[in-house]
Structure formats: C-alpha cells, structure tokens
C-alpha cells in the first residue's frame, strides 16, 4: 500500500525485452539503500517488485498485464519515473491510500499555470469517470491528487507542484503529468499525443483544415487507440496495411510492432505530415492517394507496396501474416474490406468502423443488419465487436457510434468458394432485392420468367435446398449461400 506522495524521481537505465514482458532497470538513488529483493515499490503509479539490486540500480519485471494497463512499456532509457516505497503502519498518511493497481490510462488534455498553482485536465475512460467525484482522491502516475470536477469525458485537478515525502530532490515540472500517450519513438524522437488540443494546435501550425468528405475523424481516446493496436495481436514478422495515416498516431504504434507497414493516405497534407513524423522509420511506406482505384478495385500503388513488403520479408528469410489494422474512414470501409477479401485476403482485420457497418459485418441471417457484406464476410471469416466507441472518442465528433471490429479469416472456409469473383457478384446482385422473395430474384438472374428453362432451374434449386416458397435472401446463412451459388452456376446440386 502507498500514499501517492512521491519520494524520488528515478531514471530508467535499461529496457530489457523478456517476452512476453520486459525488465526495467531504474536508478532509484537513495531508495535503493535499504531495498530488498521482493520489496514492492510504486513506480509511476504501478506496484512493482524488486527482482535484482546492484547499488542504486533496481530491476523490475513487467508482465503482459502491466504492459497493457500502464505506460511503462513505452518508456525508454533516460525517462523519469516517480518512485515511492510501500507504506509502513507507523507512517503518517499524508496523501491517500494507493494500491498500485492501475485502473486505466488517461491523457493530459490541458495544463494551466497560474503563479504557484497548476490546473490540469485529463481524459479518462467512461467506466472510470463514472466512479469519480469532486473532492475525491485519485493517483496519476503515482501522485496523490484531489479531483476538482468531473464531466462526461474528463476530470480536473488543481494544486501546487507535488512535494516529496523525504528530503530528496524536488520532482520535475512534468512529474504529475500522465504519460498515457506514446513516448517519443526511437526512430523519430517525436511523440504523437493525439488529443483534441494536440490536433487543434498541430493543424493550426501546418494550416490544415479537416475535409469531412474524406471521412477525417481522428481517434483521440488514447485508451481506445491502444485497444485497437492490442486487439490486432501484431507479431514481429507481420505486414500491416493501414488505411488513413492521419497524424501517424496509429502508424507509429504499428511500426514498432510489425515487420513492415503500408499506410495509404488520400490527403496530401496528411501524407506529408505522416512522412515527417516517421522520417526515420525504415519499415513504413506511406502511399499517397486513394486506397481504391474504383469502388470494386484496390489501387495498384497500394497492392504494389504490399508486394514490395512481401518481397522484403521473404528476402530476409522471414514469414508472417498480412493484417489490416486501421481507423477506417466510413466512406471506404465496405469496399476496402470487400476488395481485400477478394484479391488480397488478410489473416485478420482489426478496424474502427461505423457501428452499423460493424454490426453488418458479423450479422447473422434473419437479423435486421444482415446484408450482402454479412454474407461475403461471413462465408470466409469469423468476427466480433471488440468495443463500441462513442462519438466523443473522435475529433471532430461523428454523428453516430463507432465500433472496433476484428474479423479472422478461416482459410478452409474460403477455399470452399471455387469462384470468388462469381460468388461476390452473385451475392451482390441478390441483395439488390433483399426484401423480395428469393425465387423471383433467382429467376431474373437465370434469364427471366419468360424463359421456361430459367423457371425450371430455380424450381430444381428450391426442391434441392428445401426452401419455403416465401423465403427471402436475408433469411439464408452464408454457408448456404456458398452452396446455392455453386449449384446455380453449375445448374446441378444435391441438397446436402
């Protein structure tokens, strides 16, 4: 147990990968003098156990849960960390009881200095904000603070710069600031802290105006940006396609995790900004232009960049997956998913999309959301909605909810579809008349009711499949659609 009164400002000496976690070596100064193996020390708000001692150098092991819930995994050599030893029963409780078990990540949205006082505002997840109250206590980076006020998206704190319990040096000015945003990347040296305030200042600086026609809504909830990356489960040999580089906030994360990243950006100004941010990231290719050549075709430049990445991976003697990970612009989400599944299938796609589209992607037959996309995706993949995102997670705010969706390709199911192009067109044509009785739609596709052989063909299909006369396309599951197309194309099909 801790109090939230920082004793010492330590410095990271080494970051040592130990998959699936890592080890941090920290210069703990005088706090290391009486430290023992196994002792708990609050490190920027997280309770860590000492595993090795070498003079003032303390080492701690961080597991996957710690890396997911804190920002410690994003910090580098030389970064500062707030340190506090565990509370003794005889100590005065100057702050408040702090467990060192981190509840979530937030981001500094605003900081105002007025003489000796500092007022800060932090964003936080809704499930944490609902538990806060004015005049209550909260620990930010291990610093005990009093909540001034709470609204739907953030909370405020105010006070004088934090003081140490002991006589050690005064904490640096930024000590109480949460480091929920990505630390400066080793390759670029610059951080992308994608908050609303950050974006406003950045766009004003570069003279950028948001173009709503291009679906430019930027994800500003850092917890959800991290969730998007984590849900993709990227491995070091993977190649990732991102659609919409934006300010490179997500691109930067993808580059740290993947072998290669191909990021398409239609807006020249944003493409330039992304290149500047990632100028030294050799594993990122920014493709300036539309990801689509047309509604039914991916841009050749994007496909060529993916081919180049595949060739580089092969030349390096490595093998991995091809993934789609993106905050997809609403206006291109459906054709991007559809066309990739047709010509460049991904092992998985983890994307933010409009909630309605996300529900369609995983909808079951007979549901209100079920449509052609449901069949096309459902015939090849299994999917889930990871999280529903409120409009407040984006800037500018869209008018509807969004969703993080993950779909995983199932190769054996995809391989059953002998003619992918034909199946795609078949489903699309049928769902142009989704509310109509299926029989009439099939007769029309077979040649029209004026053609006796067309009517007879459909009658044979109905008998083989045991369809009710009134059945509609929206009632037929994806797997049945696969067989129906095969039989329709061959004009012959058993019922099983």
Give a verbal description of the structure.
- This protein has a seven-stranded mixed β-sheet with strand order 15-14-13-18-19-22-20, with helices on both faces.
- 29% of the residues lie in helices and 26% in strands.
- It has helices at residues 64-69, 126-129, 196-206, 222-232, 249-257, 268-277, 300-315, 333-343, 355-361, 372-378, 411-414, 420-430, 438-446, 452-465, 478-490; strands at 8-18, 21-27, 40-43, 46-54, 57-62, 80-85, 107-114, 117-123, 137-140, 143-150, 154-159, 218-219, 239-243, 260-265, 284-288, 292-294, 297-298, 322-327, 348-354, 381-389, 394-395, 402-409.
- Helix 12 (420-430) crosses helix 15 (478-490).
- It has three domains: 8-159, Beta Barrel (Elongation Factor Tu (Ef-tu), domain 3), CATH 2.40.30; 196-414, Rossmann fold, CATH 3.40.50.150; 432-490, no CATH class.
- Strand 7 (107-114) and strand 8 form a beta hairpin.
- The chain contains 15 helices and 22 strands.
- It is elongated, with a radius of gyration of 27 Å.
- It is of the alpha+beta class.
